[in-house]
Amino acid sequence: MAINNRLVNWIRVLLLSTSLPLATAQTYNIMDLGTFPGGTVSQGQALNDCGHVVGYARFANFNAHGFFWSRKTGLLDIGALPPSSNFSVAQAINSRNIVAGYSTYNNDPLEFTHPILWIGGQVADLGTLPGTDDAQAMGINDSGQVVGFSVSYAFLWTPGNGMQSLGALPGGYYSQGLAINQLGEVAGLSNAADGNWHGFQWTAAKGMQQLPYLLPGDNSASANAINNRGQIVGGSSSGYAGGHAVLWDASGTPHDLGVLPGQGWGSAFAINDHEQVVGWSGFAAFLWTPAKGMQDLNTLIPSNSGWSLSLPTGINNRGQITGQGTINGQQHAFLLTPADEPSWGCE
Fold first, then answer.
1. CATH number of domain containing 179
2. How many CB atoms lie within 10 A of CB 239?
């Protein structure tokens, strides 16, 4: 019986392809963002969709300043409240490269911390809520709305109205605003009348709404990040027993993101608009996606990179990730860029 030559050739190709070893795809390229002169520690805290990263880095004397990093500028010291010996941390950045964070008025001991904005090379003090000298800014959106906490309450600061308290959950006396999306929706944590810590979502229309725990036996949770779809991520646990990373959907329903194999706990720190989540599990960095679940980020970078990634703190809509890892025995800020990322775009 004659066999069609095209069929024979197709079978040969199929057999050849199935006999070859499968190559391991390099998912991310990694870049060391470095440290300040004489320092050995830096950490990326957030990044915008241009891949511009902010965080903090330490000097030889162990003091720290906030930094701004881009591919064009490298690691820049963006300073602190005067004098320059004061401590500062850059916590968030928007698409206009306005940076939010905090700085101290007294470096030794660290006290009188104020939320600040870095705008065009200038440092602006946002002040505090009445009755306190201690506050920090944690998030900023493209409208210039800033969230944070001023002991003892979460705050929302706007260019037009200044700083307002968001209060706490019913019966609570302490809260923190940790993130804000482009719609002005805020995520954070608060205690409540039951004496426990809860994640919350705040909106101008509904005020502060308590998010449910992941499991009935849990008694502590934090909502650490919120995207523009109203999805929130964080962690939920039973006291000090192994908590799990959680995603609350737009309706407020919690979903278990799990933990890495062999690890007993985890928490999520950031989410982008494509539902990609980063966090840590057992001090190892993870990436979670709806398609693949939770993956150890250390398996998604070149195996010979020398890096051990532990703390991913931000992910942008291009899938770039920043945080802190260990390289050559030092803790450095990193930037991961998907290997198939076509361009830097905003430089």
1. 2.130.10.120
2. 10
User: Do 92 and 110 meet the contact criterion of CB atoms below 8 Å apart?
Assistant: no
Any idea what the Cα angle at residue 213 is, between residues 273 and 203, rounded to 5°?
50
- Would you give the end-to-end CA distance of the chain in angstroms? 64
Provide the number of structural domains found in the chain.
Answer: 1
Examine the pLDDT at 30 and tell me if it is beyond 70. yes
Q: Which residues pair with 248 in a beta bridge?
A: 232, 254
Question: Bridge-partner residues for 65, per DSSP?
Answer: 57
- Chain position carrying tokens 């198939």: 340
Q: Determine the 3-state secondary structure of 16 from DSSP.
A: helix
- Lookup: tokens for 200: 């919350």
Domain encompassing residue 276: 168-300
Residue 203 falls inside a structural domain: yes
- What's the 3-state SS for 232-263? EEEEEEECCEEEEEEEECCCCCEEEEECCCCC
Interatomic CA distance for residues 190 and 169, integer angstroms: 6
Whether 133 is in a domain gets the answer: no
Q: Is 295 within the bounds of a domain?
A: yes
Contact 335, 51 (CB under 8 A): yes
In a domain, 192, yes or no: yes
pTM for the complete prediction? 0.91
**Average of pLDDT values for 80-100?**
96
Distance of CA 67 to the CA centre of its chain: 16
